[in-house]
Amino acid sequence: SDRNPGGGEYLLSARLGQGLDPSTGISFQVSDAQTGLPLPCKMTVVGMGATPTQGFYQYLHTISGEGSMAVPPGTYDVYLTRGPEYSILKQTVTVTTGGVITIKGKLDRIVDTRDYVCGEFHLHAMEGNNIDPIGTMLTALVGEGVEYAVSTDHNRVTDFQPRIEELGLTNWIK
Fold first, then answer.
1. pTM of the prediction?
2. Contact of 48 with 74, CB cutoff 8 Å
3. pLDDT at 112 over 70
C-alpha cells in the first residue's frame, strides 16, 4: 500500500485493492538465500480462475523484504522477484474471507554481476500526482535490483541522493 510514503512499500498498479477488507489478503517475507538478510523485492499477484480480479494483477515493491496486500477472496498466482539477477519464487494460493496467506521465501542470486552496474539512465521522477514521487520511484528501482539512477526531469534539477539517504538505501542504489 502507499499509506506510508517514504516507507518501504508501494502499490503502483491499478487500485484493484481499494475498499477491500484489510484482514483478507496476502503477506510476504523475502530474504537473500546466501546471506539470510531481508531483500528488497516485488510481489506480483495475479487473479486466477473465478477470482473477481481474474486476469488482472497488482504489484507491490518493498525495501524491507516484507509487505502485505488486501485482495478479494479467490485464487492467485503470487510471484516474488528481484529483477533479472535473482531467482523467482512462484506460489499459487487461495485466500478466504478474513484470512491472510503468508508466503516466506528466499531468492537466489543466479547471475553474477560483480563487475557490472544495473542502471536506469532516463528517469522523470517529478511527473504525475503521487504523494512521494522520488520515494516511490526509488523503492521500485531497488525492488527490481537497479543500482544506479539518473534524473532526467525536464526544466528542473532533481537530486535523488537526499531521498536515498532518508530511506536508508545507500547500500542498494546510487
1. 0.82
2. yes
3. yes
